[in-house]
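I am still getting used to backbone structure tokens and would like to learn alongside you. Label the sequence line and the structure token line clearly, so we can match residues to local backbone shapes. Would you write everything just below, so we can both look at the same thing?
***
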Amino acid sequence: MKFKDKPPMDQYRSFRWHGRLAGFLGIVFFLSFMFADGFQTLKNAPGTFDLTYVITVSVFALAAYVVGWQLENIGGLLLILAGVFLAYYVGFSKVFGGWGDMLLFSLPFLIPGIFYLIAWNIKRKAKKNDNKTS
């Protein structure tokens, strides 16, 4: 059975769990990177508040990930916003710069956010179709 042939609620569950798993792996990756290189690099940047900003947005993204377990639309949107804010800030930072660092900081939050929004959209369409057939 192909993915498109699955019932909408099975697709919804699949994307929801993809978002949950990608979010967990993204957070583990991000934290391991921060403990390995990130914190030291950010602490060595005198006169900037890069460390404070990155930690604040990361905690916001972690909260968004937890919210996404129950409310996919809100959690997904907040995760995407956190990824965009980190990418934008890191792209113009004096400590970091370039596309590689922007992707490194943003993708762990963008990917699960996109999965959450896709899952929510499938669920919304399935409910709309159920209401039409009733």
User: Anything to note?
Assistant: The chain has a mean pLDDT of 81. Helices lie at 8-43, 50-68, 72-91, 99-133. Residues 8-43 form the longest helix (36 residues). Residues 26-127 form one domain.
